[in-house]
Amino acid sequence: MFSEERKKVILQLLEENERVLAKDLAKMFHVSVDSIRRDLHSMEEEGLLTRTHGGAIPLMQTRITPPPPAVRYKEGAKTEQAIAKAAASYIEENSTIFIGGASIHYMMLTYLPNDLPFTVITNSIRIADALREKDHIDCYLIGGKVKKSGNITDAFSQEFIRNFNLDLCFLTGGGLSRTGLSTNTPETALSTRIVAEHSRKTICLIGHQKFGTASFAKVLPLSKLHLIITDEETAEEKVQALRELGSHIVAAPPI
Question: Are 176 and 241 in contact (CB under 8 A)?
Answer without folding.
Answer: no
